[in-house]
Amino acid sequence: MDVSSTLVLASLVLLLLLVFGMRKGKQGLRLPPGPTGLPLLGNLPQLNKHAPFKSFLEWSKQYGPVITVYLGLQRVVVLIGYETVKEALVDQAEDFSGRAPVPFLYKATRGYGNTRRHMTYKNVHYAFALAFHYHCLLISNGERWHQLRRFTLTTLRDFGMGRKKMEIWIQEESKYLVDLLRENKSASFDPSFFLSRAVSNVICALVFGQRFSYKDAQLLRLLQTISGILKFLSSPSGQLYNIFPRLMNYLPGRHQTIFREVDEIRNFCTEKITQHQETLNPDDPRDYIDCFLMRLNEEKNLPSTEFHNDNLISTVLNLFLAGTETTSSTMRYTMMLLIKYPHIQEKMQKEIDDVIGQTRSPTMEDRKSLPFTNAVIHEAQRFLDLVPMGLPHYATKDISFKGFIIPKDTVILPLLHSVLKGEDHWDNPWTFNPDHFLDNNGNFKPNPAFIPFASGKRACVGESLARMELFLFLVTLLQHFTFSSPEGPDSVDISPENSGFGNVPRRYEMIVTPR
Questions:
Q1: Residue 460 assigned as binding residue
Q2: Domains in the chain and their CATH numbers?
Q3: Engineering a disulfide at 100: which of 15, 325, 392, 429 sits with its beta carbon 3.0 to 4.6 angstroms away?
C-alpha cells in the first residue's frame, strides 16, 4: 500500500473514531439522543441558520425533550418544554447553575467579572453568544460568581431596585421622556434611541449616581455602540468569532471594530470610576460604584478577594450594557403592538384613565388595579420571545438528568422559546392575545410558563427592575399620548428580525399624538 493510500485510510479511520466518539460520549456514558452529525462540523450544516431553535424543536419530535447536538466540536444538550426546563433550572438548580464561557465576552471583559483568568478556549466551539441580552454576571462560575452576584443583588436592592426609591427615579425619568416626545408630536420618528436613553438613565442612576441629558452626545454615541454590539453578536461574523476565537483574533473584520467600540464603553466606565475614587465618602455611598470601592478598600489585603479594580470595571461595564438594551427593546416592541392593534391601546388607556387619570404618576401599587394593562405587558414579553434559546448554561461536572448523563464541559441550552410558545401552556401561543393572562372575570392570571427572565439560580438579577420600568414607563406614556403609524396599523410588521439567536424588534416610525 503506498503512502497516499495509507494516509487516506488513516484519515477515514480517524473520522470514524471521531463520529463514534461523538455518539458514545465521555467514557461510554449514556448521552441524551440526537441527530447524527458530521466529523468536525457536527450538526452545524443541518441547522436552520436563521432560526436554530426551530431545528431543535423538529429534532425533539423524534428524540424527545432532551437532545444532544454538536456545534463544531462542542457538545450541546438542548432542554425543550416547560417541564424539562423547570426540572433542570429549578428542581436541579445547583447542577445547572454553571454558565458557559463565551469567547467574545471573555475578550471584551479581559477575563474579569467572568470565569477565572486561566480559562482556555478548548471547550467553547459553539455559536450561541447572546450574553449581552441579559443583566450582569452572565458567564462567571464558582466563587467569583457567588461573591459578585450576592454583592450586586444586595447593593442594588439597597439603592432601591424593586423598591419605592426606584419607583421615584423611574417616575422622574418618565417625565423627561414625556417632555422629549412632546417635542416630536407633529412628525413621525424612530423611537429606538428615545426609549433607550430613558432606560439607560435608570441604570445610570443606580450605577453612576447620575442621569444624563437626552442631548448628551456621548450618551447617544454609547447607546448606538451598544446597539451595534448586539447586532454583531447575532450576526454570522459574531457567531464565527465564538466558534474560532483564536483564528479570528488574527484576521481583520467587523469584530476588530467592535472590540474597539467596547473599549470606548470601558473607557467611559473607567472614567466614572476614577471620578468616584476622587470623591468617595465612605459614610455616604452614592451608588453601586461607591459600595464596590468601599468593599475593595476593606479587602485590599486579602489575596483571594474578588473585589478589585478589574472586576469593578467589568461588572460596571456589564451592568451598563445589559441594563439598557433588553428593557428598551421590549418597550419598543410593546408600543409597536399597540400601534398594530389600536383597540388594545384604547382599552388600556380607558383602564388607566379610570384608575389613575391622566395627571397622577402611576405607582407599582396600581398594577393590581390594572389587570388588562398588566396582561398586555406580560403578553408582549411572551410574544416577543426575546432570547428564544435562553443563555447557555454549562456542566461544571457530570450531571444525571432524566435517566441520562450530561458530561462535564457540555454546553446546555434551556430553550425558552419552547416554554413561552408551548402549546401545553398557552391557548393560542402563536397569536398576540392578552387573554393568556386574564381569567374569566378579567382578573390578572399568572402563568408558570411565563419565564422570559429565565429561572433558577441563573435568573436575571435585574428582573424586578425591568418589570418596574416596563410598567411605569408604558403606563405613563399611555396617559399622555396615543401612538400610531404614519401608514396605518396594517403596515406595521410585528414579526421580529430573527437573527438566529435573538428576536429583535424591527425598526419603525411612529407618530405620538398628545391626549
A1: yes
A2: 31-514 (1.10.630.10)
A3: 392
